[in-house]
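Whiteboard transcription, Tuesday session. T.W. wrote the C-alpha cells on the left side:
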C-alpha cells in the first residue's frame, strides 16, 4: 500500500528501454520513486500491488493496447493516468481519455514538460481525497461555483451563464486538471437523451471562456478541453 510519508511512486509503463531510462532518471532527480513495466500485463499487476501515485502510460505496448490498460485499471483505481503517445495516434489518445486517462503527452516530449504534468497530477491527488470533487462549492483563482444555488462568480461578481454553459463549466470544474474529450462533453452536457454537435460545442465553449476567463480553460485542438489551476 502507498504511504503518504514516503516519496510518491510513479509507474512508468514503457517498452522502449531508452525512453524508460530517460524518464526514470528525470523522476529520480525530483526525488520521486519509480517502477518500470514493459508490458500491459506487468503494468496492471504493478498498479494493483504497489498503488502508484501516478501512472505514465505508453499506448504502444507489446502485449496489449494501452487503452486496455486504462480500462482495466479504472475498474478499481482512480490513480491519475498520463498517456504518452507518438504523433499521429490522435484517435488512440482520444480513446485513452474516453477510457478514463487524465492527460496526455505527445512524443517526443521534453523532460521539463513531463515533470510539470506529473507535478500537476500529484498535486491533485494530494488535494482531493476521494469524493472531494463532489463537494458543494468549487474555487479556482477568481472563479467560484456554488453547486447548490448554481451561482457562478468571478472575483465576487455573479457571472450569468446559459444552462448549457453552466453544465459544461461544472463538468470541467469537477474534473479539474483532466482533459475532457469533445465526445465526453457532448454526451454529458446536453442531457435528456440529447447529444450536441461539435460546431455548437465550439461556439458555446468560446462564449464560456470569454465569461470565466480564457486562461482557466485550455483548448486541446482536435481533442477537447481542460480546466487548469489558476496561477
Ligand atoms: Ca511503445
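and on the right, the sequence the group agreed on:
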Amino acid at each position: 500500500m502507498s504511504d503518504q510519508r514516503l516519496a510518491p511512486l510513479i509507474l512508468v509503463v514503457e517498452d522502449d528501454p531508452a525512453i524508460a531510462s530517460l524518464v526514470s532518471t528525470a523522476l529520480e532527480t525530483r526525488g520521486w520513486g519509480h517502477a518500470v513495466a514493459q508490458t500491459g500485463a506487468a503494468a496492471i499487476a504493478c498498479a494493483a500491488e504497489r498503488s502508484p501515485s501516478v501512472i505514465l502510460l505508453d499506448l504502444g505496448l507489446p502485449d496489449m493496447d494501452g487503452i486496455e490498460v486504462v480500462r482495466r485499471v479504472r475498474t478499481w483505481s482512480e490513480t491519475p493516468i498520463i498517456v504518452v503517445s507518438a504523433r499521429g495516434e490522435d484517435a488512440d489518445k482520444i480513446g485513452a481519455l474516453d477510457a478514463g486517462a487524465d492527460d496526455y503527452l505527445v512524443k517526443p516530449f521534453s523532460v521539463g514538460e513531463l515533470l510539470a504534468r506529473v507535478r500537476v497530477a500529484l498535486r491533485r491527488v494530494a488535494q482531493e481525497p476521494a469524493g472531494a470533487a463532489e463537494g458543494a462549492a468549487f474555487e479556482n483563482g477568481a472563479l467560484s461555483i456554488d453547486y447548490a444555488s448554481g451561482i457562478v462568480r468571478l472575483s465576487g461578481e455573479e457571472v450569468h451563464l446559459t444552462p448549457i454553459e453552466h453544465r459544461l463549466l461544472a463538468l470541467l470544474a469537477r474534473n479539474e486538471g483532466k482533459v475532457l474529450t469533445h465526445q465526453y462533453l457532448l454526451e454529458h452536457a446536453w442531457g435528456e437523451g440529447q447529444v450536441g454537435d461539435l460546431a455548437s460545442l465550439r461556439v458555446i465553449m468560446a462564449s464560456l471562456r470569454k465569461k470565466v476567463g480564457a486562461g482557466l480553460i485550455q483548448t486541446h485542438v482536435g481533442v477537447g478541453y481542460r480546466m487548469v489551476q489558476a496561477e
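Someone added at the bottom: Residues 1-5 have pLDDT under 50 and may be disordered.
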